[in-house]
């Protein structure tokens, strides 16, 4: 689905994406958090990506580090895909359940946070259409769709939650370094392509050029 939006004229934007073992924070946990940064008007190749994965320090430390990094970025705009309805709320709920301080994203305001999904959800509800996924939005703009494969299967949110995330956490518990490294490479690719997709979709919605580097990249990992 395309969505034409007024350009908010952000100077620098930061984007956030999380990966979990379940959509319900009472049943799942955070495995990875990705953060992308881009100065509007610069080539897409100048965007930077910081990928945070669970380690021996635990889930609360992962969330604290990732949110802290977002807040430290010199950005004036936050761009997410369903960040309002899922990502940020999930992080907050997990920290509450872990009895840790609530994470405070300084850019999570009506003025600074653009949730690319929220507007599309409202439009889809008005039309009686199904809610669009991120890949469908890329297709609508004729943007290439990336693919991450794990042992011959395309990684989806369901496969990540049901299988990939738990596999990584098991390897972490077992300190299985031979498996951890390639699993992290796989998750890096999955996260980075989603983050660039957020940036590309924001630019497409606002009528700006964005010559994506990672969209359309297909990588397969046998782990």
Automatic annotation (TrEMBL):
Q: GO: which molecular function terms?
A: nucleic acid binding
YprB ribonuclease H-like domain sequence ranges: 16-118
Write out the entry's keywords from A to Z. Answer: Plasmid
Q: Does the keyword Acyltransferase apply?
A: no
InterPro entries of this UniProt entry?
Answer: RNaseH-like_sf, RNaseH_sf, YprB_RNase_H-like_dom
Designated name of the protein: YprB ribonuclease H-like domain-containing protein
Does the record's keyword annotation contain Ribonucleoprotein? no
Domain of life, per UniProt, equals Archaea
């Amino acid at each position: 689905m395309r969505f034409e939006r007024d350009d908010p004229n952000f100077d620098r934007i930061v984007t956030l994406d999380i990966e979990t073992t379940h959509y319900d924070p009472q049943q799942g946990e955070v495995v990875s958090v990705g953060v992308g940064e881009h100065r509007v008007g610069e080539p897409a190749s100048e965007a930077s990506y910081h990928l945070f994965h669970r380690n021996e320090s635990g889930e609360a430390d992962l969330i604290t580090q990732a949110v802290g990094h977002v807040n430290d970025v010199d950005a004036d705009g936050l761009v997410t895909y369903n960040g309002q309805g899922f990502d940020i709320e999930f992080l907050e709920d997990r920290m509450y359940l872990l009895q840790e301080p609530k994470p405070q994203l300084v850019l999570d305001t009506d003025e600074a946070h653009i949730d690319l999904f929220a507007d599309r959800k409202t439009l889809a509800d008005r039309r009686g259409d199904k809610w669009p996924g991120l890949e469908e939005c890329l297709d609508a703009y004729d943007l290439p769709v990336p693919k991450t494969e794990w042992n011959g299967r395309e990684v989806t949110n369901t496969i990540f939650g049901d299988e990939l995330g738990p596999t990584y956490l098991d390897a972490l518990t077992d300190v299985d370094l031979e498996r951890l490294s390639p699993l992290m490479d796989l998750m890096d690719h999955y996260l980075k392509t989603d983050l660039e997709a957020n940036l590309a979709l924001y630019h497409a919605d606002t009528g700006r050029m964005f010559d994506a580097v990672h969209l359309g990249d297909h990588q397969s990992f046998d782990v």
